[in-house]
Structure formats: structure tokens, C-alpha cells
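If you are new to this repository, start here. Below is one unmodified record pulled from the training split, so you can see the exact layout before writing a loader.
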Amino acid sequence: MAAHLKKRVYEEFSKVVQIPHEEVPAKKLRLSKPSKSAALHVDLCKATNSTDALQYLLQFARQPVEAESVEGVVRILLEHYYKETDNSVRLKIASLLGLLSKTQDFHPDCIVDDVVNIIGNEKSHQVLAQLLDTLLVIGTQLPDSPSVRQRLVDVACKLLSDTYFGVRNKCLQLLGYLGVMDAALTKDSDGPGTSSGVRDVQSIISDYFGDQDPRVRTAALKAMLQLHERGMKIHQIIYEQACRLLADDYEQVRSAAVQMVWVLSLLYPESIVPIPSSNEEIRLVDDAFGKISHMVSDGSWMVRVQAAKTLGSMKLVSHHFLEQTLDKKLMSDLRRKRTAHERARELFASGEFSSGRKWADDAPKEKLDTNTVNLIASGACGAFVHGLEDEMFEVRIAAVEALCQLARSSPSFAEKCLDFLVDMFNDEIEEVRLQSIHVLREISTHITLREDQLDTVLAVLEDSSRDIREALHELLCFTNVSTKECIQLALLELLKNLNKYPSDRNSVWKCLKFVGSRHPTLVLPLVPELLSTHPYFDTPEPDMDDPAYIAVLVLVFNAAKSCPTMPALFSDHTFRHYAYLRDSLSHLVPPLTLPGRKQVFGLDSVGSGSASGSVESAQVFLQQSLNRVSAIQTLEAPGAQDLLVFTIRDLQRLGELQAELAGAADFCATYLHCQLLLMKALQEKLWTMAVPLCLKQNLTATAATQQILEETYKLEFMYGGLENRQLATIHHMRLQAKALQLVLNARSRQGLDVLISSCEKFLQDIECFHRMFLTELPHLQGTFVEKLLELMPRLSSCEPVELVKILQTTLRHSGLLQLSLPPQIHRATANIIEPTGESDNPLRFTSGLVVALDIDATLEHVQDPESTIKVQVLYPDGQSHVIHPKPSDFRKPGPTRRRLITQVYLSHTSWTEPSQIEVRLLLAYSSSSPSSAPKFSWSDSTDALQPTEAAVEGTIPFSKPVKVYIMPKPARR
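And here is the target side for that same chain:
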């Protein structure tokens, strides 16, 4: 029995039960960072005194805090605040609460109650001011919580009666940022105002315009200005109080009062305000203009600068007030003069006349106080005169700019302030002279220079500063003169300038071009004298290499375009010189219709007709050319290549004929050239022959691949106005070139490690392309990259040799990606003006030392030229130096135009004879790729993988090289 039981027990417990296998979910690891609040709590608990606690808080403030840890940190800080007795520690905690409230994704409304309760129990004024600043931060972070903002404003109103100026300042600042016009506020009766009870925010703030502390008065004015910036309309009653603050002893108060008066003059320009000590009334904008003009004579130069700048924006002021700022004589002896009819009527109404028996019985009854100005403040008389004569050049610059703004809207005022602006050309500060020239250029449409004024203007041509001289040339281009003597004087001074500073040649020629085209009738009587012609005798032919003679011809030919009678005064050699200059300096010499010389000048009319052709027709031709290329898929290889060659030629010619479409045409031609190179590299002969038999073709394809990569970088960085679709097209072409490069490297029998590394890099490039242009993938159907993305799972797991075969097949069977053009494409261009490269005289210097070579170049449509433009110097022995110009070497004459004026220092060992160096501009670029690209591997070891490059950097030749003769001489012993 026992044996039987034992057997049953064994049988019962030895059964094997097979449980179906269930997939156990993988455990997810959560990486947790150490809690900032716990660390802070430990540190504060370790502090034995206030100094240690303050040190721990200072260390904590230097470390970033994550959004999820902010609430815990705030609670720790508040808990320690209640236990802390030292004011400096509580002050630091209040500051940290404000900083933490700015953390993104943290809602600071949860600590409003705590901060408000703390404020109610705080005794330290400094800590109280910091807590109010924290409330201001919280209020600005909660724009959608009007109840919270109203509560904070109520707290500020209760603390306005504090004796510490910092607390009152913060309260006023909080009212300015959070106060609402339609909300009624309760203000304590202990403040400087006598009234209490329900008030609006403006009346509460205005009570502190008369505070005993100037810092509080400044804060009150700034709070009122903050209400204006938030869109609230300031009450007109504030104007009188702001005007009184213009005479405050504290300069910050006066500065804020000037801004307050200006704001009210914009809000209520046509309101009528009374004149003190008079029965007259005046417009508010005129009264404000007079008061702000008085501040141009303020004792603080900062207030004077602000007052002068403010005057320039007050364009609604009356004309007679505006003119009074240019006259130092007080207007009407400080009072309004009555007419004779008014005086007679007043005498008749009195019923008596002077008998002469009593001394001074007809003297005026009222006593005139010279300190009281009736119509306009005495400082407003000649305000701009005082500003232009100020000892501080900042005030003079501000006055010049204000004159410019007012003169642009008033032609009559522009004529009156012309003499004052011309006098500023003699200022001792270069910046003031330059600004006055620019100002006169902006108002040149309203003025005509007299001979004496022009004489003063032309004296600036003697200035040693190149910027000053070129700014004056620009001014003369757009200025009208009154007489032919002015034209003669301007030409004489410009020729002197050309003789003294030969580097100004192009600027002087351009100036005379505009002077001639603006004054054809004044140039006409000067033509015989300028060209040295005589009615009876032949005069010698001038030298065409003389820049002064070319300058005269540029003046005359541009005047002749609008004066058909002028060519009759030309001699025979003048017509020949015209033909020469028309070809060599076509941008300075216009096309002329000369009688009896059609066989010589017939090309001009043809050129002008073609130049004025329709841009719309050229755009249609450009689009038709791109559509024609789309049919390349159905053509055989020779026919497709011929079609691309002819289309590229047409587009290049179109860019030469139509300047408006030059960027788009060049962009399309460059892209099609890349496609042509790719097509030639993928021809049948290269891929059907054995590798050892096609080494020459392999080298040709490698060179074509490198050229395609260079062209794609040009397409990306030398053209502006590109959209995301065009960038995707460029990167697609670059990806094809990299794939071809990988295939060619594999055919050249590289090592396995190098091949694996190249495949890894190429797969990373595909992933980068997919992330960058995910939105453009629907427009890339049937292209090379779409096929690769479909095969991506297979590519990431296959062998390198198989990957190369897939790339080779995909490349040969992928089609052309159609190019679409954005509305406007601009091509970045550069032109080196100096050196010209025409001189045969070598630049001599001692070997081992340096010589400075002046570089003058113009740049068009270049993005961020200060960091991308470089100068390259190539010596005959192959040495190359790249110089990065300073940011101060770049000027900005136009919105899309830059001017580079710099010096390049050359040095070399001694040569036996002069040789040429090449100088050119380079455009630096950096093509960044995301650093988080995933890595694929075929092997277990990743030691052979090269690190992914963060960016591809390089330079693009950006201008035609200019050759300069130099001659390093051996040093004398």
C-alpha cells in the first residue's frame, strides 16, 4: 500500500505541463536625473548660518533647472524663506523665484498666493522691492489671467505709500505693465495725493509726478509711457503736469517728461491749450513743439540729444513755429503785436486821448515780464541753431537728423535750413560731416544750390577721408545747381579731386554722368570751352588716356542725350572718342542719335531696342526652354546631350541680354550643365567594359563628378531667393554625384575598410536628405532618391558590394528631375575696381618687407559678406594666401549692394624680374549636416568607421582674377 501511494505521489508530481510561450514585454528603462529640489534641500539643510545658505543659493543660480523640477525647487525656496531671518538670503530667494517663474512650461500662478502672503509680512524694504519685481514677472507670464493681474495691481496700490523709493518704483512699474483702464482701483490715503477711494490707474500714477524722490517721479513717467505702449490712451490732463516736469532738477525726469510731452502731442495734436499770462490759445502740438525746443538748450547733453531727435518726428507743427527754430531773434518781442485797427478801437473805447500834460500817461498798462514767454518759449527761437552749434557732437548729429526728417515733409523748410546744413560740412568731427552730407542727399529733391553754397560743399573734396569724398560725389549726383558757373566750378573741383586722389576715378566719372544728365541746358554753353573747340582753327586732339579728359567727355555726352543741338558743336575726333567710350565705358556713356553717322552708331539703336525688350517674353522663353528639356527622357543619349548643350547656350545668351533674368538664366544653365556632366559620366561604354580597360574613362568620370559637386555648392550658396523645392533639387543632384563617386571608388579596387566607411557616409547622407526635405518628397516621384528610399531597409542590411551594384543600376535608370523656378533669383556677383590690372609699372618693394595693395570691390546680393568674403593672393611660385577682411572694411551703399575697401599686405623673397600675382575674391560656405545621423554597420566592429563630418566647408571663386605686377628687390647691404 505504501509502495502504491509512493508511486502515485511520484506520478502526480512528475507530470510535465507545457505552457505556451508568451512574449514577455521588454522592460523600458527610464533614465532619471537627480532631482534639483532634493539637492537644494540637502544643501540648505547643511547650511549652519546665513552666509553658507547664501553661498549655496548662488551656486544653485548658476545651474540650469529643468521644467519638471521647477515646482519642487520653488516649494523648497518658499519653505526656507519662512525660516530665514537674514535679509540678504531672503532677497536672493525672492530673486530666484522671479527667475524660475520665467521657465518655459511652468505655470507661476501656483505661487501667487505665497508671494502675496510673504509681502504682507515682510519688513525689509529691499526684499519687498524684490518681491514686487517677482510679482511683475509672474504677471507678465500670465496675460490670460485678468483676475490674477488685478490682484497684483491691488497689492501694488496698497504699497504705494511705502517710505522706501525702491518699493514705490516697483509698484509704479507694476501698475504700468499690468494696470487696466476700465478697472477701478482703491488707493490708500497715505500717498502724496490728497484724494482717496476709487481711482483709475492713470490718476494714481499721475499723483506721483510730484513725489519728493526724483527716481519715483521718473518711474511714474515711465509707467505712464508703458500704458501708452500697451495701447491705452493717455488723458489730456496729464499734459500740464508733464510740462511742469520739463523744468525738473533731475535729468532723468526731464528726459522722461520730454517723451511724455511728445506722446501727448501725437494723441491730441489739434487740441487747444491756453498760453500762460495771456488771453491767447494755441494748438497742443505747437505748444509741445515749443517746449521740447526749449529742451535743446538743456544742461544735460543726453536730454539735448533726446529733445533734438524728438523734434524731428513732430511733423504736424505749424509752419511759422517750424521756421522760428532757425532764427535766434525772439518772435514779436515775446508778445503778439496788435494791428493798428485794434489799437485805435481800444483807444476809441476808452473815450480819452493823451493830453501830453501828464508824464507817461500813454504808457502801456501791463508790465512785460521778460521771463514769461507768451507765444513761444525763448529756447524754441533758434532751437536748431543751438543744436547745430552744440559742444557735444552727439547733439549736433541728432539736430542734423531732425532737420532732415522735418525738411523731407516741407520743401519750404528744406530751402531755409539749407545754409545751416551746408555749414555743417566744416564740422571738426568726421561723423558729423558725413551725416550732414547724407542728410543733404535725402532732401536734394527740394533744393537748388547757389554758387556760394556749392563753393562750401565742394571744399569737402579736399578731405582725406575716402568715405567723405564718395558721399559728396553721391550728393552731387542728385543735387540741382542754379547757373552754368556752378557747373564749371563743380567740374573744376572734381578734376582737382581726380588729380589729388586718382583712386576716386570711377566715383568722379559716375558723379559727372549724373551732373550732365540733370543739367543739359547749363552744360550746353560750356561745350566749346570744355572740348577746346574753335570755329575757325583745328585744335589738337586730346589724349584718351587722360582720366580728366574722359571725365569731361562723360559730362558732355550725358548732357547731349537730352540736348539734340549739342552734337553740332562736336569736332571729328570727339565722335571717334564717343565710339571708343561707348564700347569701353558703356555704363557711363549713353547711346546718342548723332545726325549723319548712322553707319557708325547704328548699333546703339539696335542695342537699346533689344535692351528695352519685354521681360515677359524673356520669361516665356525661359520657361519654354525648361519644358523642352523635360522631353529628354524619350531621347537617345547623343540627342539628349545635344539638346542640353543647345539649351545651356540659349540660357547663357538670355542672361547676357536680359539683366532682370540673369540670375534665373544662369541658375538653370548651371543646373543643366550638372545634368549634362552626369549623363556623360553614365554613358554605356564606361559600364560595359572591364575595369582595367576603362581607366581613362574612369578618370574622366571622376573629374566630372568632382565638377558636379562644385557646381552644386555654387547653386546653393551663390544664388539668393531660392525656395525649399529648389534646395531639394540641388541636394538631389549632389546625392547623385556622391553615389557616382562611391561607385567609381569601388571600381578602383579600394580597401574594404575604406569602402565600408564610404557606404556608411552615403547612407547617412540619404537619411539627412530625407529629414531635411520630407515635405518635398511628393515632388520627387520617379527620381533617384525616391528609389533609394524605397530600398532603404535592404540597403542598410546588405553588403557593400551589393550596395554599389544597386547604386549603379539606380543611377543609370533614374530620370531627370524637372527644375521649377521661384519668382525671383539673384546671383551674387563681385567686381574688383581697384587694382585694374592695366598698369605695366611694377609695384616695387624690398624683399622680406611688406607692401600694401589697395583693394576696392563692389558686391551684389551677397548674404553676410563680413563673414563669407575673403581675398586670395596667388603668387607665381604657386603660393596662395587667403586674407579675411575686417567688418569695418565693408560699406553699405544700397540694400543689396556692398562695397569692400581694404588693404592686402604682400611680401616675398627677391625676384630677378617683375612677375604677376593674381588677386581674386572668394565666397566661403559651410554646408552643415545634422550630427544625429543614424549609423549603419555591416560588421560587429566599428573601429574602421570614420567620424561623420559636421559640415563641409570650402570656398568658391567669386570674381575675375586681377593681375598685378610686383617686383621684390633684394635688400641693400
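Two things worth knowing about this chain: The mean pLDDT is 78. The longest strand covers residues 915-928.
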